[in-house]
Amino acid sequence: MKVKDPVCGMKIEKEEAAEKIEYMGKEYYFCSQECAEKFKDNPEQYAHQKNSHGHGCCH
Ligand SMILES: [Zn+2]
What we know:
Blueprint: E1 2-4, E2 11-13, E3 19-23, E4 26-30, H1 33-41, H2 43-47
Antiparallel strand pairs: 1-2, 3-4
The structure holds zinc ion.
Zinc ion (ZN) binds near residues 5, 10 and 32.
């Protein structure tokens, strides 16, 4: 199942996620530790973000 990395906007497979973070009762998956760290720094910004385009941090 594909999920979206809320930081960079990349779609990833759950099983391939580098990191999973639970925030406000929702699970977020990340393509890399880097994205996960950014999310941890500012979870509100990313958790509330919707149709934004990522900056392509990776891959
Ligand atoms: Zn990412």
